Fold:
Amino acid sequence: MEDREVILDIQNLRTTFSTQEGLVHAVNGISYKLHTGETLGIVGESGCGKSVSMLSVLRLLEIPPAKIMADAIYFKGDNLIDYPNNEMRKIRGSKIAMIFQDPMTSLNPVLTIGFQIKEPLKLHLGMDDKEAKARAAELLKLVGIPDSESRLDDYPHQFSGGMRQRAMIAIALACNPTLLIADEPTTALDVTIQAQLIELVKELQDDLGMALIWITHDLGVVAGLAERVIVMYAGYVVEDAPVDSLYEDPRHPYTFALLKSLPKLIDVPGEKLETIEGLPPDLVEMPKGCPFVPRCAFAKDKCRTENPALDEISLDHRIACWVDIKTGELR
Amino acid sequence: MSENNTLVRVENLVKHFPITRGVVFQKQVGAVKAVDGVSFEIKKGETLGLVGESGCGKTTTGRTILQLHKPTSGEVFFRDINLTEASDGKLRELRRDMQIIFQDPYASLNPRMTVGRIIAEPLDVHNIGTPAERKERVQELLRLVGLNPYFVNRYPHEFSGGQRQRIGVARALALEPEFIVCDEPISALDVSIQAQVVNLLGDLQEEMGLTYLFIAHDLSMVRHISNRIAVMYLGKIVELADRDVLFANTLHPYSIALLSAVPLHNPAAERERKRIILMGDVPSPANPPTGCRFHTRCPIAEKRCEVEDPEFREYEKDHWVACHFVEKAQQKM
Structure:
């Protein structure tokens, strides 16, 4: 993995929102690197900061109430933190593109599909309308929409959910991005349509060679797609590992429990699922110590007072935990 | 299947929703064929899983069984009583024994009522017990579903999604029903919370001898909780079998594709498995394809499938399927 160029290097990213209830600590100092052409899965439950961390990188949050802080966010060697807003705008949608969760609401209902695909082409690549139209038809065809030229004049409501998400992908790919961020793109869709889209994105990634960050809460989707997986909990990265080690040998108690709570392929009828009792912490009043302590089966005294940093325990495998879950003792 | 242990029997159930045009002089111009002739039985104490994609009619089936929608045609028997012919008074009485847990715990609880009132409502409606007894019963129900009885005076917004779903379960249990339709009770919840609710439903079934119709689109959870599973596509059941049989010996091309589309939690297996990607989208139930409804997306469809609707038949003992080419599906898919 090290021989590939690092294209995204996030260092100590923190995002907070000021609300009436107090300061919400959505992302609490996350750091990781992404390499050229790599597929990274980010998994976690709702409210764990997986979407917010990506929106922070792209500066797509309203400031205030949001406040984004980081030591550095390097994208292809340039520190995005230093970029003024107009420079960021040039990167968004061209070098870094994003597909959003809900294809029903992320397309503009009063503009044609064609208009919305042409927009980035004109804006970022300076194409005229004719060129943009030809390219837009090409892109729609690429994402598997038949009769693409005539469908350019359709409005989003004339497309099904799966087709809308394909159109979103076409918009995202319009400017040949170096990095594509997919924020739960299949969550709102049915499994057979999800399978179509995952296959499509995989093929496109092979052809176009872009890096991919796939945000999801579905551990199954990531298993078939990602090379490396980051598990987030309460705004922290708690485990970061190659996909095979993560599933075969999870080392953080949260990942371990999460994988155990899924129904097995072979299970005995009537057998109980293992559960993680309790709820994620309130992001306004973050507990001292490790955020997973109240739900953790391995918790020690140290965990209640000191929050563990992300630490490399074996090659490419990092966890934020004081305990070795194999022995149940402190590492 | 002997008659006496069947709790619910559905025969050729049809539910069409009219599509109308015009404001003053409305006329019917078509119908959404949400459920178009389904038949099955649910035995006492078992869980029947009903799976399918959105819009296939699984929720409508559940609601029509409980007569929350009046069926267009067909019959539903509950303990051998024909619900479609029962009077309103009789139905109300029978509803004590058949309840529903709704999909969205955020929308199915009245935000202006306290948890205590929400759970007591069925008791109020059916005039069961004195106010003091009802209060007692609400506390008992809260404990039963794993919530603190101290919460009775709180409002739904003070609870998390998983806790709200427990409130929904408590409300469904208030009248000690025999049969509960669970309409996607876990799909709005986070993974770590889903397991909690599924375990709760399992425990309650064991303790109280409940019978479930468990509607879901998440096959792995359905497999975990069900004894038998029915697969629905566009208003019809295409396959019905014991859960292990359905997974080990899948017969219908749609079921095969659906199972292959479910992501596994295992990277090595994911890389090796052959995935069948269905083309296109589910057709509109307002205008379903002729013949077999799946033929427009079926990888093994032939001419016959376009014209002739396959019969829902017992291919092996207790294994029902609606397909002309079961053997071909086995070989080719």
Remarks:
- The interface with chain A takes residues 53-54, 160, 162, 190-196, 198-199, 202, 206, 217, 219-221, 223-224, 227, 243, 257-258, 260-268, 270-271, 275, 277-279, 281-282 of chain B (CB under 8 Å).
- The longest strand of chain B covers residues 27-43.
- The radius of gyration of chain B is 21 Å.
- The mean pLDDT of chain B is 88.
